[in-house]
Amino acid sequence: EYMGGDGDMMAQTGMGLMRARAEQARQEEQTGVLRFESVYNDSKPQSLVWLTQVKGVFSKGLPRMPVDYIARMVYDRNHHSLCLIKGVKVIGGILYRPFVSQGFSEIVFLAIDPSEQVKGYGTHIMNHLKEVSKLQGIHNFLTYADNFAVGYFRKQGFSELLTLPRARYVGYIKDYDGGTLMECRFDARIDFLRIPQFVSAARAQIDRATRTRCSNFVVHPGLTAFRESRGRPRRLAVTDIPGVAGTQYAPEEQQLSDDVLYERLSRVLRAVREHPRAEHFLSAVDSDDYKTIVKNPIDLSIILSRLESRAYYVTKEIFNADMTRMFTNARFF
C-alpha cells in the first residue's frame, strides 16, 4: 500500500521538476534537515518511539487499512521500518520485510505525511531503501500495489513483469485481493542516491552532442512587424519568420481561404470553451506558483483574441500549437 510521493501529475511532462525535487531532498539530507533510520522492534525506547510515529504516518496515509493491522505489522519483529525523520518527527516511512535467504524484500507499506508530500521524499526514501538492501545482499523488491500506487512504483523501477522465480517468493509473501504484484530488480553497481547528478550529466552530454549536429538551439530575433503595424491586422507568410527559411518546412499545397479557416477554428474554439470542464482554461491562472513554474502561459481568452484578430492564426498548425501548449502547461503544473 502506498500513499504520497511525487504524484502522477508529473508523469507526462514534469520530469525536470521531478529531478529538481529529488535533488532538493538530497540537499536537505546533506544539510541535516532530513535523516533516515532503519529500525525494528528491538524493545529499545528510541526504536519504539520511531515505530509509533511511523505507525501514525501509515494510519493517516492509508485510511482504508485497519489501524490494528498496521500496528501488528509495524511492531512485528520480522518487519523493518525505514523512517524519514525531519527534526525530531517521523514524516514518512517504508515498512518492509527482508527475506535474505530468498534474495528479496517485501514492501508492505509506504507513506509520506500529507503535509510533506510533493517534495521528492517518496523517491528519495525508496532510493535509500535500495542502498540499505544492497548491504544485505538483496537486489529485488516485491510489493502488491493498488490502482492508485501502480504509477508511483513504475517510476521507481517496478514492473508487473516478474523475473524472480515463483519458488523464491510463493509462500513467503501474503497475497492481497485487488492488488497488482510488482517487482523491482536493481543493480548493485548503481549509486541510487546520486541518480539526479547522473541524469543531469547525461543530459548535458547529449545536449553538447546535439548542438554539434543541428541549429535548433539558435535563438533568432523576434518579429517586429506586428508592433510596427500599431494594432492594425497584418498577415505574414510563415517563411517570413526568422529561422524558418532553410528548414524542412513546406506550406500546404492547398491553403484554406481566410474566411474558411476562421470559421473552422471558431467552431473548434467554441466547442472547447463550452466544454463542461473548461472552467479553469477560460482565463489566466492567478497563482504565483503557476507563474513561477509555467514559463509560457496561455489560456482560451488569449487564443480567442488572437483568432478574432484574423491575422495571427494564418494556418491551423499555429492554432494547434497554442492549444497543445495550453494543455501541456496544465499537465506540467
Written overview of the protein:
It contains 12 helices and 7 strands. The chain has 333 residues and is an alpha/beta fold. Strands 1, 2, 3, 4, 5, 6 and 7 form a 7-stranded mixed sheet that branches. A hairpin with a 2-residue loop joins β3 and β4 (89-99). α2 (45-61) runs antiparallel to α3 (67-75) and α9 (258-273) packs antiparallel against α11. Mean pLDDT is 87; it is low at 1-15.
Radius of gyration from the CA trace? Answer: 26 Å
Distance between the termini: 26 Å
SSE pattern: EHEHHEEEHEHHEHHHHHH
- How would you sum up the global shape? elongated
Features:
single chain, 333 residues, alpha/beta, seven-stranded mixed β-sheet, 7 strands, elongated
Map the helices and strands.
Layout: E1 2-3, H1 15-30, E2 34-39, H2 45-61, H3 67-75, E3 80-86, E4 89-99, E5 104-112, H4 121-135, E6 140-145, H5 150-155, H6 166-169, E7 180-185, H7 195-211, H8 225-228, H9 258-273, H10 288-293, H11 300-309, H12 316-332
Parallel strand pairs: 1-5, 5-6
Antiparallel strand pairs: 2-3, 3-4, 4-5, 6-7
Helix pairs in contact: 2-3, 9-11
Concise synopsis of the structure shown:
With 333 residues, the chain is α/β, with parallel strands linked by helices. It has helices spanning 15-30, 45-61, 67-75, 121-135, 150-155, 166-169, 195-211, 225-228, 258-273, 288-293, 300-309, 316-332, and strands at 2-3, 34-39, 80-86, 89-99, 104-112, 140-145, 180-185.
